[in-house]
């Protein structure tokens, strides 16, 4: 399953042209952007770049980034934790066991149900490059 990551409001992933992709696709720069003109249209004062207050998205960035880069190992661990927690709330969890399989740049899971029935799945992450909608896989 290909999962396209999107940055929080006021941020962007800084991927240059295709021929200038970061040497390591696991280190995608995250850039704070000025959205003042958009914020003023909505009646708010200024963007995250021009305010001193903390925002909830900053906590998420602290969780998923190392320095100014999206950290794919942190993203994978975070998604694995979310999926594992969410699985326990589903009715299917009474009949199937979810096992998180080792993986550092994607999320791999195995569902075990009735004897002999297993399903394996993998979530691979990508980010959108440019406005054309092309996605770059982060494996």
Automatic annotation (TrEMBL):
Organismal lineage: Eukaryota, Metazoa, Chordata, Craniata, Vertebrata
Name by which UniProt lists this protein: IPIL1 protein
